[in-house]
């Protein structure tokens, strides 16, 4: 019997679970989630983000993430009722793109982490910048333009790194720091992603970064999987020596440092490279072939799947990352996910049950009314000026707004993922909102696909535990296939399926045109869609 710990440091919380593996049988034997805002109010975060006057700026606190990790390990050490000595390996996932800036003293401080003092007080002195820009930041448009120009245009950047230069990606964020806070950049000795930062705390030394999370930086050559000298040069001087080593996702990057063994009674388990939450979720929902796509309805909504051929998104909004299997995966990210749904829910004075009822009792297509749910600056399509746009929709009509927010999100998701290739007939759904059947019905109807909610909650953490197991076996010379890794656990619940309703599918084919016209208009690229919407209204009514 062996145990594997998987962690997920997401935008709003840290979740960890322990997987017990005995022969072919796997089960989760321990699980705990720690909400940042509620458990650590002293940091002043809201939904995991430090408040800022500029809606384009979003940062969080690396010390908060460290304190949550320490708290989780303390709970694991004191409350778990399985033999902790059997813990063989640990891995993790973290919100992607966010960066942590460490000074030259950090390497020694990591090596000498003192088990007698809380981690949080030991992390502060390691930082050359107190906060960490995160994936919600949209303040680097100028830096993106400069990098794009230096690399020969958006298509060239995509060809090289898998994505166009994106505001939230780490390269543009580093360039911004270099240009606007030169002293802090000079004082920076190592730049970690959230994933490699937390792995560094676990191992007590600067941990390597996996190819998966590194693909969200605009800095790695996706073909060779090395840092691209050109991209580094286009970003900031002296960057190569500040970046972690790159490794394959299944690499062992160290062992739990004495801090964890002495302070919390954990064994010196192997630490497997951490990755981004989306790549890790791919394993946690059982995406090990290109036939299935996943929809993750968390703080962000993401749609992703393994790619069978080489391609990038010509529109520039989608990304190609390296999946934990080593294959390319396509991903499209929408910032206005759960928090936008919550915004509409709260504006209508509803709970989730009332929200679901409003969805169930309003007609598919919403009578031709459309919402572009860009309450916050949007990633896909890129929109900097926050504010939902409504077409034919009265803001005071609560139930219609409930339907409009979900339909707007899913019509956008379908439109902006078309580049990934032929439509999947099965979608694995995960994330907090995947427990909402009425939302999943809209997903099924818009995507014309069967939607299968994944049985296990916490897919990113489960993916991390499964990756830890896979890497441990590989390290012991007993490699296993990915099908076997996910079998029996990272799978949809048997028989649980939301099927598309034929009449709704027809309506959404029509509404896709309405959505496209509204989006073009809102982006200043198309005419007023009102005449088209009127025609569509009578089309779907008949
Ligand atoms: P993350 O991992 O990105 O922090 P989660 O995947 O845990 O986020 O999802 C959290 C979100 O799930 C909450 O912000 C909430 O809006 C949403 N959620 C929880 N329950 C429901 C429900 N019944 N219907 C719709 N959304 C829900
Ligand atoms: C993906 C992205 C988000 C974060 C937060 O590109 O920015 O999904 O990983 O979960």
Task: Provide an overview of this structure.
With 542 residues, the protein is of the alpha/beta class. 38% of the residues lie in helices and 19% in strands. The strands form 7 sheets. Strands 1, 2, 3, 5, 13, 14 and 15 form a 7-stranded mixed sheet that branches. A 6-stranded mixed sheet has the order 18-19-17-16-22-23, sandwiched between helices. A two-stranded antiparallel ribbon has the order 4-7. It is globular and about 70 Å long. D-xylulose (XUL) binds next to helix 13 and strand 19.
User: SS-based structural class?
Assistant: alpha/beta
Bound molecules: adenosine-5'-diphosphate, D-xylulose
Rg from Cα: 23 Å
Mean pLDDT: 96
Figure out the total of helices: 21
Shape designation: globular
Strand percent estimate:
15-25%
Low-pLDDT sequence parts: none
Number of strands: 23
Q: Sheet bearing the most strands, described? A: 7 strands, mixed
Residue share in helix:
25-40%
Oligomer description: single chain
Separation of termini? Answer: 62 Å
């Amino acid at each position: 019997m062996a145990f594997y710990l998987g962690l997920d440091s997401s935008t709003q919380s840290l979740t960890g679970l322990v997987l017990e593996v005995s022969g072919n049988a796997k089960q989760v034997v321990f699980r705990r989630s720690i909400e940042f805002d509620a458990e650590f109010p002293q940091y002043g975060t809201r939904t995991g983000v430090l408040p800022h006057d500029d809606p384009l700026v979003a940062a969080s606190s690396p010390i908060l993430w460290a304190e949550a990790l320490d708290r989780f390990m303390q709970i694991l050490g004191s409350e778990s009722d399985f033999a902790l000595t059997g813990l063989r390996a640990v891995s993790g996932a973290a919100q992607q793109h966010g960066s942590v800036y460490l000074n030259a003293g950090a390497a020694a401080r990591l090596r000498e982490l003192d088990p007698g003092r809380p981690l949080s007080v030991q992390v502060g002195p390691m930082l050359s910048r107190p906060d960490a820009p995160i994936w919600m930041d949209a303040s680097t448009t100028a830096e993106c333009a400069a990098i794009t120009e230096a690399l020969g245009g958006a298509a060239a950047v995509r060809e090289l790194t898998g994505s166009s230069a994106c505001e939230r990606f780490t390269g543009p964020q580093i360039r911004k720091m270099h240009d606007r806070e030169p002293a802090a950049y000079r004082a920076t000795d190592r730049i970690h992603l959230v994933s490699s930062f937390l792995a560094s705390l676990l191992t007590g030394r600067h941990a390597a970064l996996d190819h998966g999370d590194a693909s969200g930086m605009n800095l790695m050559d996706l073909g060779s999987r090395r840092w691209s000298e050109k991209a580094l040069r286009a970003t900031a001087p002296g960057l190569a020596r500040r970046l972690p080593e790159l490794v394959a996702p299944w690499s062992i990057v160290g062992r739990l440092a004495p801090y964890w063994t002495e302070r919390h009674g954990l064994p010196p388990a192997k630490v497997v490279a951490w990755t981004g939450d989306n790549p890790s979720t791919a394993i946690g929902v059982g995406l090990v072939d290109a036939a299935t796509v996943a929809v993750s309805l968390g703080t962000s909504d993401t749609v992703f799947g393994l790619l069978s051929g080489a391609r990038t998104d010509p529109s520039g909004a989608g990304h190609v990352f390296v999946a934990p299997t080593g294959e390319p995966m396509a991903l499209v990210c929408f910032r206005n996910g759960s928090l936008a749904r919550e915004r509409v829910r709260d504006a209508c004075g509803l709970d989730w049950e009332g929200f679901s009822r409003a969805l169930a009792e309003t007609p598919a297509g919403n009578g031709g009314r459309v919402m572009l749910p860009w309450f916050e600056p949007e990633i896909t399509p890129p929109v900097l000026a926050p504010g939902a746009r409504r077409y034919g929709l009265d803001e005071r009509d609560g139930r219609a707004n409930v339907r409009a927010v979900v339909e707007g999100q899913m019509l956008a998701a379908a439109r902006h993922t078309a580049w990934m290739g032929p439509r999947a007939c099965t979608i694995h759904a995960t994330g907090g909102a995947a427990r909402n059947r009425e939302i999943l019905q809209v997903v099924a109807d818009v995507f014309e696909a069967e939607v299968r909610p994944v049985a296990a909650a916490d897919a990113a953490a489960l993916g991390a535990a499964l990756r830890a197991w896979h890497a441990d076996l590989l390290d012991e010379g007993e490699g296993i296939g990915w099908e076997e890794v996910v079998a029996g656990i990272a799978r949809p619940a048997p028989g649980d399926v939301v099927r598309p309703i034929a009449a709704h599918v027809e309506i959404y084919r029509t509404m896709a045109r309405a959505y496209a016209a509204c989006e073009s208009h809102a982006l200043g690229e198309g005419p007023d869609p009102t005449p088209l919407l009127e025609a569509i209204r009578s089309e779907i009514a008949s």
